[in-house]
Amino acid sequence: MCGIIGYVGSRQAKEILIDGLTRLEYRGYDSAGLVTLNDGAVIVKTEGKVDELKKRLENKPVDGKIGIAHTRWATHGEPSERNAHPHSDEKRQIFVVHNGIIENYKHLKDELIKKGHKFASDTDTEVLAHLIEEDYKGNLEQAVASALSLVRGTYGLAVISCLETDKIVVARSGSPLLVGLGNDENIVASDVSAIIRYTKEVVYLEEREIAVVKKDGFHSFSGKSAKDRVALVEWEIEQAEKGGFPHFMLKEIFEQPKVVEDSIRGRLIEEDGLAKLGGLEEVKDRLGKCERLIITACGTAYYAGLVGEYLFEEYGGLPTEVEYASEFRYRKPIIERDKTAFLAISQSGETADTLAAVCEAKRKGALVLGIVNVVGSTIARETDAGVYNHAGPEIGVASTKAFISQLAVLFLFTLMIGRQREMSFVTGRKIAGHIKRLPNQINSILTQDEKIKEIAQKYAKYNDFLYISRKYNFPIALEGALKLKEISYIHAEGYPSGEMKHGPIALIDENFPTIAIIPKDSVYEKTISNLEEIKARKGKIIAVATEGDEEIQNVADDVIYIPETLEMLTPIFSVVPLQLLAYYIAVIRGKDVDKPRNLAKSVTVE
Ligand code: G6P
Question: Fewer beta carbons under 10 A from the terminal one: N or C of the chain?
């Protein structure tokens, strides 16, 4: 949540800071600001999106070859200009941009007020600027270190000062921060998408690390030199741009065939009915001995986990449970050392609750695995072993292609553990053959884009939607409802079809449409009966059904067809029309699809 960018080098900082903020905006967008240093400090802040900041900067001389900037997702203090970062001390000599939450800020603020400090905002971050000022004795990094020793909470931060204009001091604890290494310049950021235009060489800050970044160097308090830690970012700048699509979300939906191809590339051994996941090779034997799997995640990734539960139990023979990370971390989970495996699923690899759950599972002795998209992210580093999704950067706040890639990896995972346990070669080969065909088949769903747009036109006026399904597609009902809620702000609920009679059917009337995911699977007839019950109560029905199923037309008002595949693989198809439907309904209702209100791409605070 929130985005940080900082520049020190031989160019003017302003352009790089603004470009960085634009690319980071998906992390938070309720206010933004920057400060550059030249003969003095120039600070510009606004409420609203980065475009507002750009307008404010027009015709304003903002010189300086060093600066820091921030785009905010409010935690403490309403979104406003005064609460926008950077924050400073009273003398306006020390400037801080911060992601995370300073949990003991009230106590620290009271102490500072007693010492005569006056505060200009309602934020927890401002406390840091005052603390650094209080501790400043001629060396900025020392002052930052002693200020941070008083702080409880999470932070990724960048600090500059008029008193030492050649350096940015950076620090992290529970919130990501990295340094992009350039020629005669260095860029700090909370996310690689902000720096890939300038450099592919990055150093990821470690937990509780403090470092000084200058135009020609990086010096860590830990003593570790940058040279031994440089990682190469594989993402290309084009992947973080819209490429002719009106929104990132639509672009990312259309990228999905390629994403699935990338996720399975080199990992599927069709002729042997096997999957080889390089990142898990080292722990494969340990995993083979585990008797139970706990999957944890948040948001869309949690729904991928729910699909995983059906897969692992039916085809992997592995007892599996799935839990929201925010709940797992506060329970007293029963983990048997060497017998329990733990799998975290996270696109960003930075979600605070998922990370905390990972740490808890590790502490209790589980074998901790991850399915993570962002290479080098905290969860990727904290887990014992894992698999990268290879979905490329996902910018749209509502997750689409990352979800699809999580499913693809879960399919491979199932094949791997299944074949390790009881799955026969014949079953393995059949599954592998179907997985291989997925990218082309997803393409064929995307060709129905226009038809889905028409259906969206017809239904965009409704204010409530029910999503139902059974078995493998029940999690997709939840995900479909979440997509609609997130970007169109329409009330939508996902339910297992079998639960209809236990409550939701009371809602059904001609103004409450149902979206039913009903592929030709082992529970088809059961769901048809549920649809009949809805129809009998004048409920409108949009069905996502298998190509060739004409019977469904007798009960549904509109049908979107998906290709035939194995029942276990159907979720990767059925989610695609639901993503498009949510997208078009949101566009028709005039919503900001890529930056839905109150949301942020990566939830790095609890
Ligand atoms: C936020 C995002 C969702 C995402 C969830 C989990 O809520 O808006 O799209 O599914 O976080 O994020 P993660 O990065 O852990 O997958």
Answer: C
Q: Which amino acid would we find at residue 364?
A: K
Looking at the predicted structure, is the pLDDT value of residue 28 above 90?
A: no
Ligand 1 site, residue 377, Cβ cutoff 6 A: no
| Averaged pLDDT for residues 491-495 | 97
pLDDT band at 1 (very low <50, low <70, confident <90, very high): confident
pLDDT at 26: 80
Kindly state if the Cβ of 400 falls inside 6 Å of ligand 1.
no
* Topology annotation, domain 448-594: Rossmann fold (3.40.50)
Residue position matching structure tokens 């502490």: 363
Token output for 469: 């399904």
Q: What are phi and psi of 475, to 5 degrees?
A: -60, -25
Two tokens, residue 561? 């067809």
Q: 3-class DSSP state for residue 242?
A: coil
Q: What is the mean pLDDT of residues 281-298?
A: 96
pLDDT band at 56 (very low <50, low <70, confident <90, very high): very high
Q: What class, spelled out in words, does domain 3-233 have in CATH?
A: alpha beta
Where are the extended beta strands (E) located within 292-401?
292-297, 320-324, 340-346, 367-372, 385-388
How far is it, in rounded angstroms, from Cα 380 to Cα 344? Answer: 9
pLDDT of residue 388: 97
**Rounded Cα distance, 228 and 396, in Å:** 34
pLDDT digits (tens, 9 = 90+) for 507-541: 999 999 999 999 999 999 999 999 999 999 999 99
Domains 3-233 and 448-594 share a fold: no
Sequence-ordered strand ranges (E) for 393-499:
464-469, 491-496
Q: Active-site residue numbers?
A: 2, 601
Q: What separation in Å is there between the alpha carbon of 599 and the centre of ligand 1?
A: 10
* Angle made by CA atoms 456, 512, 398, in degrees to the nearest 5: 50
Can you give the pLDDT at residue 255?
97
Domain ranges of the chain: 3-233, 242-445, 448-594
The arrangement of secondary structure in 242-445, i.e. its CATH architecture, is: 3-Layer(aba) Sandwich (3.40)
Question: Token pair for residue 274?
Answer: 């096997």
530 and 474 in contact (C-beta within 8 Å)?
Answer: no
Q: Which tens digit of pLDDT belongs to each residue from 210-219?
A: 999 999 989 9
For the Cβ of 320 lying below 6 angstroms from any atom of ligand 1, the answer is: no
Which residues are CB-neighbours of 32 under 8 A, at least 6 positions away?
21, 25, 45, 46, 48, 49, 50, 52, 53, 69, 70, 71, 72, 84
Of the candidates 452, 387, 446, 430, the one whose C-alpha atom is nearest the C-alpha of residue 567 is 430
Nearest CA to ligand 1 atom 8: 601
As a whole number, mean pLDDT of residues 336-360 equals 95
Is the CB of 378 within 6 Å of ligand 1? Answer: no
SS3 191: coil
pLDDT digits (tens, 9 = 90+) for 401-419: 999 999 999 999 999 999 9
